[in-house]
Amino acid sequence: MSIPRLILSVAPAALVTLGLLLLMHFLILRNMTEPEQSTEFKIPEITMPDREITTEYDTRKPDKPDEPEEPPPELPEPEFESPDVSSEISFAPQMDTGVEISGIGGFSSDGDYLPIVKVAPKYPARAANRGLEGYCTVEYTVTVTGETRDVEVVDCPQTVFASASVKAAQKFKYKPKVIDGEPIEVPGVRNRFTFQMAQD
Fold first, then answer.
1. How far apart are CA 188 and CA 96, in angstroms?
2. Which domains does the chain have, with CATH numbers?
3. How far is CA 189 from CA 59, 69, 177, in A?
């Protein structure tokens, strides 16, 4: 490599380096000047006043409510849609011998059985809805304790009344028949139930 070419390549590099040094020196001198005066802002101090925290309880008794001047109106009784029906019971027990006994005071002997409790049968809903009326005769045995046993239907043109008649007869109570101081059973006692709609 020749010397002239080396000088030509080094000279520009030296000039660039010198220029950078001068620029750095200029920038340093510029930053060393005093800053201009700036406006000062004073931040006010915020202080919270001291407060005493207390808990207060409400001990007052509630006021007694005023008594109503008038009582509340009576609610109407609910109305149920059901047919107005009634059932009549024939209280004349009948013997299979054909002798008809008309009531408590019509017995020929003081020792005969006497009806004490007779329950009215419940009018069947099917019959009430269809407006059916009729009767039903049942036969049973009055036991030594005055209860009924072996209740059977003997005459019931409208079979819809049979079940209600049997259930009612099963709840009958009698004073048993007494002979020589001993109660005895009385078979073949009959009772006729009449089912009729109530008349308006």
1. 6
2. 89-197 (3.30.2420.10)
3. 79, 63, 12
b/e map of 75-105 (b: 16 or more CB within 10 Å)?
Answer: eeeeeeeeeebebebeeebbeeeeeebeeee
What are the phi and psi torsion angles at 39 (to 5°)? Answer: -80, 130
Taking only the tens place, the pLDDT of each residue in 13-30 is: 888 888 888 888 888 877
Q: Is the pLDDT of residue 92 over 50?
A: no
Note if the pTM is more than 0.70: no
How far from the centroid of its chain's Cα atoms is residue 17's Cα? 102
Beta bridge mates, 190: 94, 139
> CB–CB of 88/136 below 8 Å?
no
